[in-house]
Amino acid sequence: MEAHRAHHPDADLEPLRRAYVLAESSHRGQMRKSGEPYITHPLAVTLILAELGAETTTLTASLLHDTVEDTEVTLDQVREQFGEEVRYLVDGVTKLEKVDYGAAAEPETFRKMLVATGNDVRVMSIKLADRLHNMRTLGVMRPEKQERIAKVTRDVLIPLAERLGVQALKTELEDLVFAILHPEEYEHTRELIAENAARPGDPLAEVADEVRGVLRESGIPAEVLIRPRHFVSVHRVARKRGQLRGTDFGRLLVLVNEDADCYGVLGELHTCMTPVVSEFKDFIAVPKFNLYQSLHTAVARPDGQMVEVLIRTHQMHKVAEAGVVALGNPYAPAADTSVPDTPASGATAGAPSSSGAPADGERADPTRPGWLSRLLDWQQAAPDPDTFWSTLRADLAQDREITVFRPDGGALGLPEGSTCVDAAYAQYGEDAHACIGARVNGRLATLSTVLRDGDTVQLLMGQDPASEPSREWLEHAHTPAARIAIQRWLATHPAGGTDPAEPAGPGEPGGTRAGASAEPGTASARAGNTPSTDPAATTGRPAATAAPSAGPSAAARRAEPSGTRAATPSARRPSAAPGAAPERAADGAPAPRSRRADVLVDRPGAAARLAGCCTPVPPDEITGFAVRGGVVTVHRAECAAVAHMKSRGRAEIGVRWGDTAECRVTLVAESFGRPHLLADLTEAIASQGVEIVSATVEPPTQQRVRHTYTLQLPDAAHLPALMRAMRDVPGVYDVRRAQHQPRTS
User: Fold this and answer.
1) Would you say the pTM of this structure is higher than 0.70?
2) Which of 24, 70, 464, 598 is catalytic?
3) What count of other Cβ atoms lies within 10 Å of the Cβ of residue 405?
4) Please, which residues have CB within 8 angstroms of residue 710's CB and are 6 or more apart in sequence?
5) Tell me: the pLDDT tens digits for 303-349?
6) Could you confirm whether 70 is annotated as catalytic?
7) Most buried residue, 54, 354, 461, 498, by most Cβ within 10 Å?
8) Could you tell me the CA-to-CA distances from 652 to 55, 358, 528, 600 in Å, in that order?
9) Per residue, what are the HEC states of 298-358?
10) Does the domain made of 663-737 have the CATH classification 3.30.70.260?
11) For 218-238, what is each residue's pLDDT tens digit?
12) What is the CATH number that goes with domain 398-491?
């Protein structure tokens, strides 16, 4: 009660008194393995939480946390005497019986606690304090049991304490686990700390006095403390730096009143002392995902020793030590007490409700961070206890988070190292099976692209509900939610997901997804009226040659709208490959020459020919290279073929645009398959007054269709408007200029 009143002077202590009376009478006669009365355990657990500043409801439940599990007290009795919140917290930490669950009792107990934590984070606060006291008194257990409990604490509870920001519990748990699992290294570290304490003089104390003087002169009210490192921290520093010096055994902590004072202290220290710039981190402007805020810096002493300094406000320090425990009761009624219609993922009947949620369904309070929401989501898809237990440990081992943004402004929290595959399953769940690509920061990207903090991700979703994930996606799935969903689909569809190559993102040639049929005979049926036209039509690829064709296939003629055919007769005529014989009309006479933009060449008598690989148009920056017959091919300056020819020693020839703005260009459109797509695209092109010289529509792969059009523009200035018109066609998600890699010898 005294510890509680230190943080909450006005707290009503009557519930604590009644909870103690019930706990003491219920546990009377029970003894711990150490020989102490059992009531000493719930008292110790409650004291741990009281010293961290937990509110009254948490302490009441903490006193009662073992009564339902170990005595005749029932949850109904707890509800009748202390209310629904206390009942929910006690139920959340009550273990499942081994009689009912056998070997699965431990993982299923943790699953139950995590689901309960998703609705009230105070459940996990009580569990962490419970485990800390048990670890403090673990010496009475058999060595093998000590080791088993220590490993679970290391793999599950310490990461949870870190993610919930309860550093005071996390650091002590780390030291207790260190002593059990690595006794020799623990003893060596203890000796190092003892030797340092016996040395005359303390360099940290000297620097602390110097810092106090600097801040006193600057007029910034601050408290400067020395924070000794705990055993595991000293061990890590020793492994990193080798020989330890006096300043390696602790850090300075500067506590101020206002956020602005933190930066004032930083400025004074960097002005009056020698800063170590590489050690600076600003966790105030960008807090850690576990609520932690602080400025980290370091200053160098004249003797070369480096002193780490933490700068934070008193409130930041409270949160840094106690994490979510310091937030009080985040479920207390606020001014807006509306309750969301749909409970949070993993909700359990009878759980207290948060006072509202934002539009995207995430919890409004900071105690329901993204990592917890993700954990609750994937645990529902892991019914097998062994899968849940192993996946939980792997998930909690990922201790860094990134935030990526959706185009609508929403955010996704993901573990560091996540890919577009992970983002897809985080946003769409199992509907992500239909994902066919992504845009990262506005650029098309493969699903294997690793995301960085702050990226904007637009996921491109197909429209076929029977879409299938690729087996190769497992190589790029970083989150449990993605891996479980993919593995579950593959397990139920053993014949699917067997494509040997990674699925290409939009704009990548040759990519097919698992289960996708690329047979030309089925292309029209799968993509709607989207035929595969004459294969000899120009695609812009180097060395694309084919025998002349009298016209498109019958399927293409049936699918192509008659109005478009009449308006663009040249769309059925293949373009000649570079160096091929001139085209002939039906009567055998030479076909009319194609109209092209004028290009002036800095070589007398040389003719210019626009390269088919990049189809330059005014006002593109261009360059030229001589080929056989005195012809100069003109490329866009950024064309990949330019770099290739330069690497082979080919000399550039100066070229520039003439006065004629008429030009020919090749565009590639990426789209989802749907009926009448080709008709709509050609109509959009015709509406811009542009002639279609040739067109190719590749067989669809997983609802994704690529169209290649060679177009004659009356004016190059019309190109941006043409590309916008094509992008506005429903189902088209990208239109770009053709750009292909040159052939290698």
Assistant:
1) no
2) 70
3) 15
4) 537, 538, 540, 575, 615, 664, 665, 666, 692, 693, 694, 695
5) 888 999 999 999 999 989 988 887 766 555 443 433 333 333 333 33
6) yes
7) 54
8) 77, 60, 46, 14
9) EEECCCCCEEEEEEEEHHHHHHHHHHHHHHCCCCCCCCCCCCCCCCCCCCCCCCCCCCCCC
10) yes
11) 999 999 999 999 999 999 888
12) 3.10.20.30
pLDDT (tens digit per residue) in 521-573 = 333 333 333 333 333 333 333 333 333 333 333 333 333 333 333 333 333 33
pLDDT at residue 363 tops 60: no
Nearest to 625 by CA among 661, 709, 616: 616
Give the C-alpha separation, 249 to 226, whole Å.
10
Rounded to 10 deg, the angle between the 143-152 and 122-136 helix axes is 150
Distance between CA 475 and CA 452 in Å, rounded? 18
Q: What is the pLDDT of residues 3-35, one digit of tens each?
A: 999 999 999 999 999 999 999 999 999 999 888
Active-site residue identified among 14, 36, 69, 384: 69
Collapsing DSSP to helix, strand or coil, 453 comes out as coil
- In the block, residue with structure tokens 């620097």: 207
12 DSSP assignment = -
Greatest alpha-carbon span in the chain: 112
Residues in the chain, total: 745
C-alpha 300/C-alpha 241 separation (Å) is 15
Position 504 confidence tier, pLDDT thresholds 50, 70, 90 = very low
Strands 250-256 and 223-228: antiparallel
String of DSSP letters for 196-251: HHHSSS-HHHHHHHHHHHHHHHHT---EEEEEEPPHHHHHHHHHHHSS--GGGGEE
Architecture of domain 1-181: Orthogonal Bundle (1.10)
H or E stretch covering 252: strand 250-256
Q: Is 157 within 8 Å of 198 (Cβ atoms)?
A: no
3-state secondary structure of 545: coil
Read off the tokens for 313.
């406000």
Residue type, 666: T
Question: What pLDDT score does 262 carry?
Answer: 95
Separation in Å, CA 601 to CA 524, 608, 614, 618, 633: 45, 7, 18, 15, 10
Fold of 200-326: Beta Polymerase; domain 2 (3.30.460)
Residue 85 bears catalytic tag: no
Cβ distance 381 to 467 under 8 Å? Answer: no
Which H or E run contains 112? helix 105-119
Task: Quote the CA–CA distance of 70 and 68 in Å, as a whole number.
Answer: 6
Domain range summary for the chain, segments of one domain joined by +: 1-181, 200-326, 398-491, 598-658, 663-737
Long-range contacts of 337-346 (CB under 8 A, 24+ apart): 343/119, 344/118, 344/119, 344/368, 344/373, 344/376, 345/118, 345/373, 345/376, 345/377, 345/380, 346/114, 346/115, 346/118, 346/119, 346/376, 346/377, 346/379, 346/380
Report residue 301 as tokens: 């002493």
